[in-house]
Amino acid sequence: MERSATNLVHRSPDSTGSRPHVIYLAIGFPPAAKSSAYRMRETANQFAAAGWDVTVVTIRQESWEREYGLDHTLSAGVDPRITIVELPLERADLETDIRKFSAARSLRPRDWIYQQRQQSLKLFPEPVFGSWRPALEQAVLRLHRERPADLLVATCVPYVNLAATWRLWQEHRVPYVVDFRDGWSVDVINGGEAFTRDSVSGGWEAKLLGDAAAFWCVNEPIAEWYRERYPDVAPRVRVVRNGFDRDSIPAEPHRPDPGAGLTFGYLGALNLPLPLLKATLEGWHAARESEPLLAGARFEVRGHVGAGWAREDNPHMEALRAAAADGVTFGGPVPKAEVAQAYARWDALVLMVTGGRYMTSGKVYEFMAAGLPVVSAHEVEHDAATVLADYPLWAGPPAMDAAGLAHAFRLAAHKAVETSDADRAAARRTADRYARDTQLEPAVREVTELIRSGGATVSRQAAGEGHQ
Amino acid sequence: MTNVLLVAGSRPTRPTVLVDALTKLRDGGATVTLACDFDPSGLEIPADLAETRNIGEDGRSGGLVFRQLVRGAARPVQVWMRASHDPWVRRHARSAEILVALDNNAVHAVWQLAQRNRRADAVFGLTPALKALDDRRARPEPAKRSALPSAPSPAVLAGDAARRASAAARLAGMAATGRRAMTVSPVRSMWRVAAAAPGIPERRRAALALRLQGSMIKAGKPGAAMAMAERVVPKVTDARARAALLGPAVDRDLAAGRVPPTLRDVVKGELARAEALHTGSHPGQAPPVVGRALDLLFHRVLHYDRLSSPLSDDPAGFLAPLHDSAVGRRLAAANGRETPAEAPVGRPPRLLFLTGLNDNFLTPIRERYDAMPDVETRHLDMSPGTPVRSFLNNGRAKLIAHRLMGQSKYGQEAQQLFGPDMEWADTVFVDWCAVPAGLLSLIDPGTTRVVVRLHSFEAFTWWPHLVDFSRVDDMVFVSEHLRDLAVAAVPRLTGPGAPRLHVLTNAMDLRRYPAEKTPDARFTLGLVGIGAIAKDPRWALEVLRELRRADERYNLVLVGKEPSPDASAAAKEYCTAFERDLAELEGLGAVRRLGQRDDIPKVLTEVGVILSTSVRESFHCALVEGAASGAVPVVRDWPFFAGRAHSARTVFPDEWVVGTPAEAAQRILALTATDEAWRAAGQAAADHALATYDWDVVAPTYDPIFKP
């Protein structure tokens, strides 16, 4: 792996020049400590393994300090043949160094951010990232000039990646794949439509999907949304679930020690609605009061809470700190290399996640693979429930109220101590199909074959005539 | 040991997180001080974690002048002003290695303190503070910064001096133009002249005049404020400033029941201000300003509580400030529908009746189609007291916000409310062009046909201006003259994408009115419905006076709720004159007030002549009911529409209509000269009413709408 902190590309010394070249727009690539970094890492690795020279485009590492920080252990798993280009972009809204503020920003911090976002929207319909459009477009054009790309893969968010994707397609007809993950026009949190077809975003989405060689998303409900919204694109829509990383799972199933008190764990970015977190903590309190197995039990929350100036200083954090008397602790993020150790310490897991039928969350796969009982704190009609439906250690059904969650905590406690080692091992096996490489390898293979066969080019050339 | 100064401009809402961070700072080797722009005792911060300070607690009594300056400042500036005057804060800021703002209101104070202590880190938030502490422990202070003195730069010092000088000047100005100064008559007179003096740059003149206006009003001298504004306004071209200066005078005139001569200026200015807010950084503040403009344009004093209306006199000209404004264009934007309305195939048509005000004029229509075996009906009633009424709460503001932004949560609520019924219905009929029509037009109706009926009063309101008519297929009016007025007021009712326009007579069951008249009925005039000033019952009294000059047997009965004098000053003026007139005639036994009655057919047996005295009507059902009863109809040529292509004369037979009270008296005297003549004329009127306006005759004209 070679990293460039400038806009110049440093090709991998291993590159033969005969391998096809893919530009991968992956803002959030390791070492960014973001949940999406895992998927990006595996995607890049799969392309490298499939015979591609991969150039990853992301933003400079310092920029992530303002958000969720860096996890250099994540970078260890990146294929060394991959070249990484870091653009000098950053999220000004997350700046916390007041010396870098103008007087105007210091006087009205919120208004200043609002104005910035209004300016961004003039460039691209994405308030936080829209202003990155020119830099991204220039970067991909320069990369393509320096070494022509055979394929571009854009993963969103940010959606502004689509502008650069479209520019390269418009000017050089480079085929592209959109890894939309959670989609765009579908509102995965509240359900329904996030924007109309005749909006600016709607226009971008329609034209990008119209010419995409392939379009990936993370679950079937989102795929179905897009198949219905764009029937012409339907054959190119593919579900590529998030899955879990094999190295994040302890080698052996965990065996609890009730005498020492059970430990429940949560790992992930804590961006669920506050009422749901409070209901979970109330349910935990009630279960701990009423269930002998939970006497002295601990609930360890790990992950990222808040960003920018509000990092670990938001109402969620206050709720967690206020629950300390109930054995609730917050231990900050877990480096990727230590994730397996965290699961190895815990006796059961708590899946707290926002959204509904269009949301799966990446953590659900990892939770299943850990072979631990899972308490579900989310909507009943949620894609995580679909995934967990045949998981034997699920303390379902999902609940969002304190009473229902208390019941789930009690059930999980019993499952934790009463499940045999053999049953735990069997439970772990139900997650095998969700290993991240298992999910991504076929998708990358399909795209590789499509590009090699020239199918994408032919179909897009035909489509492209309409744009000439 | 690292000195850390935290500044809080607002009371922290996460005290546990704060204590946790303070603990980490202490454990990390920091000495922490916390400056709060509020009393910090409620935070219960242990003394070993941080020394706390209520900023300026010694300096809060720092003089009237300082307090006045602080009071007029924005919140972040207030925090800084108090902090900069507090020796405790200054001392700790000078020695701090890390300056921390805990909230948005504290950022400016920390920014300012950082200008004066150039060695310190200055960060926003607790986690960045902890990181700054870690960084300082891990690495020595950056060489560049450590070389800087822990003192303000010369530029900052110069800036401070300039600000102080400017503040002194401001204070002097504030004192001279403040409320207290405005209590002195010569000072007011001086400013009235000075503010309009030549040579002052416009922006400064406008700012000065607005300040003077506010101070004069606070000093209880609104008349002086308006007099000053009247002198200044001709020298100000900015629409927003003109509106602000003229606003109080407009409000005064309306409160006094008068038509404000500068209404147009103020409406234009308010709409310009709304547009600036919408396109600027405060779009959320635009809808109330649009609401203010609409309140002015459609104020009841202008259109309801007087005997004329500028909207009726010149619809296009009166509403030009709205239609020509950017906001007006946003409100008029056509969103259209994805698919055209489709008639059902292979099953009975499905009708949805939607009402939001009342179903006074809808019942016969609904009953007709409810009774048809080949039609399916539903009724969604949003009138007061119904479960879904709450959807209309604050409806105007929400509709304005949606029309400005192009989308809103209200639109989603409309989808949830109407979605299932719209999915079911082939045609939805919205009676009254009011808020439910606007709410319905927020959603794409799919293949359902949308029909809206506008009666009369809505034409003088803002409601039609908040309806997206590109989602309405058919508009129904109850008369041609109302259609003409509505089209003139709402230009998008014609042209490409506009709904089809229909005129359909009101649904009235007239068969229950014909009855034998009482012997005295021949000399009894009747006026049914006098609740609105527009009914102008004083005109009936004029007619009665004319008649009684010829024959004192003529008398008048007034039926219905009386107009309320409390509605406005204009209404009060009318009601006072009406009561004065009545006192004279009632004393002679010539007028009887029957009040609200629910036995109108019986009341009409005593009425030989039925009057329509209104200045405006869409149709006037009560007049037609009277005619059906056999009373001789006498219709004033409704002045709002008289002389136009369509008017009372095109609704009724020309001989029913008169121009003046004298003409009315002449017609009555002629037709009631003998019992036979009176009965013959009454019978002819009843025959015409029943043959022309009865529901049996009118009903089939509705079928093309409901059974296309």
Automatic annotation (TrEMBL), chain A:
InterPro entries: Glyco_trans_4-like_N (IPR028098)
UniProt keyword annotations, A-Z: Glycosyltransferase, Transferase
Domain Glycosyltransferase subfamily 4-like N-terminal residues, every copy: 38-243
Protein name, entry field: Glycosyltransferase subfamily 4-like N-terminal domain-containing protein
Keyword Repressor: no
Alphabetical list of Pfam families matching this protein: Glyco_trans_1_4 (PF13692), Glyco_trans_4_4 (PF13579)
Keyword Ribonucleoprotein appears in the UniProt entry: no
Organism, scientific name: Asanoa iriomotensis
TrEMBL record, chain B:
Chain positions covered by the region annotation Disordered: 135-155
Domain of life: Bacteria
Biased composition (Low complexity): 146-155
Residue spans of biased composition, Basic and acidic residues class: 135-144
Pfam families assigned to the protein according to its UniProt record, in alphabetical order: Glyco_trans_1_4
Keywords: Glycosyltransferase, Transferase
PANTHER family recorded: D-INOSITOL 3-PHOSPHATE GLYCOSYLTRANSFERASE, GLYCOSYLTRANSFERASE
Protein name according to UniProt: Glycosyltransferase involved in cell wall biosynthesis
Lineage, uppermost ranks: Bacteria, Bacillati, Actinomycetota, Actinomycetes, Micromonosporales
